[in-house]
Design a protein that fits this description.
Helix content: 10-25%
Structural class: mainly beta
Strand content: 25-35%
CATH superfamily: Peptide methionine sulfoxide reductase
Number of helices: 2
Number of domains: 1
Distance between the termini: 27 Å
CATH class: Mainly Beta
CATH topology: Metal Binding Protein, Guanine Nucleotide Exchange Factor, Chain A
Radius of gyration: 14 Å
Number of strands: 9
Strand order of the largest sheet: 3-4-8-7-6-5
């Protein structure tokens, strides 16, 4: 996959201040405040920074944690995982494989079939709803 490289000024011009804070500065939304925390609409969740398809609505579930949660990415190579030892915790950060944008974290407490919970910031996502010619 071809990586997208942009400088901070380019990202600041293309993203909202909240998207920039989360995607580029590794910020986090307050729980239950994000646009997609409770959404059940069908579609594909794309990276808000570069448009890469990340998660399918079929893999979304209500984890009750206040952030959109998915049990698997659309394709494993579309997200990257990194050790995150910030804020006195040990977690696994999830980033977009194409642009490196911070998406959230993955935890081993999700439903089957994977047992994983990808806890993702709404500001990192853009829901693309199916068009009239798509099922």
């Amino acid at each position: 996959m071809e990586k997208i490289q942009k400088n901070d000024g380019q990202w600041q011009r293309e993203l909202t201040p909240e998207q920039y804070r989360i995607l580029r500065e590794k910020g986090t939304e307050r729980p239950f405040t994000g646009q997609y925390a409770e959404t059940t609409e069908p579609g594909t969740y794309r990276c808000a920074a570069c448009g890469l398809e990340l998660f399918a609505s079929e893999a979304k579930f209500n984890a009750g944690c206040g952030w959109p949660s998915f049990y698997k990415p659309l394709e494993g190579e579309y997200v990257e995982e990194h050790a995150d030892r910030s804020h006195g915790m040990v977690r696994t950060e999830v980033t977009c494989a194409r642009c490196g944008g911070h998406l959230g974290h993955v935890f081993p407490d999700g439903p089957q079939p994977t047992g994983l919970r990808y806890c993702i910031n709404s500001a990192s996502l853009r829901l693309e709803k199916p068009g009239p010619d798509k099922k």
